[in-house]
Design a protein that fits this description.
The chain is mainly beta. It folds into four domains: 23-198, Sandwich (Jelly Rolls), CATH 2.60.120; 201-284, Immunoglobulin-like, CATH 2.60.40.10; 292-373, Immunoglobulin-like (Sandwich), CATH 2.60.40; 390-461, Immunoglobulin-like, CATH 2.60.40. It is 0% helix and 48% strand.
Length: 462
């Protein structure tokens, strides 16, 4: 007679195509070691006739102090004509990656056949109506050690449960049968049905948008719940790693904490963190748009009409779009400056016809830039028609113009002054019509006087 037990390896399921970051094992049976004070607690009987026993038998338990056996109470003779069993109701989770049954068995027999199992243990799955769903395997007297009484060494038997039986109400049964002669004693201990489940994580996010653009460290933004304390998780930044970081990770439940660098732009930015198959988005606002001038007061160089470029720099965060507008002095001051982020201000002014300085204001996002334009110089020259018989034509001059005078002005001098009152040309009045060449002076506004008593006449050199 063979002195060993064959491992029960009847069904092996290999699951493909499902990748998980972590997994856990869950036991689906109770009192698989028969250690409970109440006999067969957690188990139900099948056709019990008094041949199934639990407790501290004549052999040593595989683990703990107790086990169950089939035979007489003292395990010294065994029983013939046994047809009894035990079962537990089970339901394997639908999301299980695998499920396997493990148990330790010890068999002593008086059967002499090494090829025929006259006495055996059948492991089955039945539905709640008792109908057989699957035969998981059989161990019989051929795997036992000859001799009763006796204590065969414990051996492990295992079998994988096919996935098509997951998520079904079932009965896992251990059914014993012996014939009318030569009894066999079956012993069972440490029965376990282990389902391997994927670790699952739920992230309860309490902050998905930060309150401001400032740098911050170790901010609690949520809580991660795992379906087991054996499920380890790690938060990984998937996007935004240049400014977003986390060192969160744990076994089981724990908080999710992040750190961020300051956002120096006005543009909100979003990063993502991955925990298992869960993606979490974290948004950091941009800074408020502010506009700062390199100077807040600019004075034009003269009273004349002119374009002034890049009179002040505008400093603004990236992403802040702005358009300069005239809020005071719009009749003579204008601008078309605009930009995004940093830029400059340029203006156009019309001539100031008075001697008084005038002030205008330009706004960029509420920040004001003051523009001052001087009045024209007070030289005593008036832009008026002459009442002493002096006239000029044309007033818009390219190179030459004519001075027409009354006879009493002949023999006097004429003088030409610039807008600042500086003398730029002097000549003699020799007749009633005098041609003056000003080709050599710069373009601009000038004033002509004849003699000492005439009033000034404006001329424009183009």
């Amino acid at each position: 007679m063979k002195n060993k037990i064959k491992n029960l390896l009847l069904i092996l399921m290999v699951l493909f195509g499902l990748k998980v970051t972590a997994q856990i094992e869950v036991s689906l049976l109770t009192n698989g070691g028969f250690e409970h004070q109440t006999p067969f607690s957690g188990w139900s009987g099948i056709n019990l006739q008094g041949n199934l026993w639990e407790g501290q038998g004549s052999c040593s338990a595989y683990q703990g102090n107790s086990y169950m056996w089939v035979g007489d109470s003292e395990q010294d003779s065994g029983r013939n004509d046994v047809a009894e069993g035990l079962y537990q109701s089970i339901s394997i989770p639908q999301n299980a990656l695998s499920c396997s049954l493990y148990f330790y068995v010890s068999i002593n027999t008086l059967e002499t056949s090494v090829t025929v199992d006259y006495d055996y243990l059948d492991v089955k799955l039945r539905n709640n109506s008792g109908q057989i769903v699957a035969n998981l395997g059989r161990i019989g007297n051929t795997a036992g050690t000859y001799g009763i009484p006796g204590c065969q060494n414990w051996a492990l038997a295992s079998v994988a449960v096919p996935s098509n039986y997951f998520n079904m109400p079932l009965q896992l049964t251990f059914e014993f049968a012996t014939d009318a002669s030569e009894p066999t004693i079956f012993r069972l201990d440490s029965i376990s049905l282990i389902a391997t489940l994927p670790c699952e994580y739920t992230a309860n996010i309490i902050i998905d948008t930060l309150k401001d653009a400032n740098a911050a460290s170790n901010i609690a933004v949520g809580f991660v719940s795992a379906n087991s304390s054996n499920c380890g998780w790690e938060a990984v930044v998937k996007s935004g790693a240049t400014w977003l970081s986390t060192e969160s990770g744990a076994f089981g439940n724990d908080s999710l904490r992040i750190s961020v660098l300051a956002n120096t732009t006005a543009i909100a930015r979003t990063g993502t963190i991955e925990i298992g198959d869960t993606i979490i988005s974290i948004t950091q606002p941009g800074v408020p748009c502010t506009y700062v001038y390199s100077q807040t007061n600019y004075t034009c160089t003269s009273s004349l009409a002119n374009n002034y470029n890049n009179i002040a720099n505008v400093t603004a965060p990236t992403g802040c779009n702005w358009l300069a507008s005239v809020v005071e002095g719009g009749t003579w001051l204008s601008t078309t400056s605009q930009g995004s982020g940093n830029g400059t201000i340029s203006i156009t002014v019309q001539e100031n016809p008075t001697t008084a300085q005038r002030t205008g204001k330009i706004s960029v996002g509420g920040s004001l830039l003051t523009i001052n334009q001087p009045g024209k110089p007070n030289t005593g020259l008036a832009d008026l028609a002459d009442s002493y018989g002096v006239s000029v034509y044309p007033n818009l001059v390219n190179s030459e113009f004519n001075i027409a005078v009354a006879k009493e002005h002949i023999g006097t001098t004429y003088s030409i002054y610039d807008a600042l009152g500086q003398l730029v040309l002097i000549g003699n009045v020799t007749s009633e019509s005098n041609v003056v060449n000003i080709e050599g002076i710069d373009s601009g506004i000038y004033y002509l006087k004849v003699g000492e008593n005439s009033k000034a006449i404006k001329i424009v050199k183009q």
